[in-house]
Structures are given as structure tokens and as C-alpha cells.
Write a structure and sequence with these properties.
0% strand; 3 helices; 80% helix
């Protein structure tokens, strides 16, 4: 595990200290959990943005539609030949 040193605004540090004490959790663990959730939300937002982009791209929609047709054909083949 690496050590990281940073400075925070006084108000943020006071909130961190208060919450860590209330949760009976070390500040570094609280910061780590918060960052993990934040990174997850950033990644989630990137997925949402990419899907919104694709939704406005006729070529990508056509490719997705063709892919779904192929998938449906494969399912139908499996149903026909159990």
C-alpha cells in the first residue's frame, strides 16, 4: 500500500474527521471508500454518455440492429435443433 499526502480545505477536513469519528472508521478508509464510489460513478457516467452518443449515430444503430438480428437467428437455430 502506498502513502499519499494531500491538503484539504479546513471545512472538508472537519467534515471528514467528524464523519470518521461518527462511523468509528479511520479517515483514510473513509476517503478510500468515497473515492471508489466516485470512480464507479465516473465510469457509469461514461457508459451513459457513450450510449447517448450511439443513440444519435444512425450507422451504429444499424450495426446494433444487424447484430441483434444475428443473435435472434442463432436463438432460433438453437430452438429448432435442440
Amino acid at each position: 500500500m502506498a502513502t499519499f499526502t494531500s491538503s484539504l480545505p479546513d471545512k472538508t477536513l472537519a467534515q471528514l474527521s467528524s464523519l470518521a469519528q461518527k462511523l468509528d472508521m479511520p479517515k483514510n478508509k473513509l476517503i478510500n471508500q468515497a473515492l471508489i464510489k466516485y470512480f464507479f460513478e465516473l465510469e457509469r457516467q461514461q457508459y451513459i454518455d457513450s450510449f447517448k452518443q450511439v443513440a444519435n449515430d444512425d450507422e451504429m444503430l444499424e450495426m446494433a440492429d444487424l447484430g441483434l438480428d444475428d443473435y435472434l437467428n442463432q436463438l432460433n437455430d438453437l430452438d429448432a435443433n435442440p
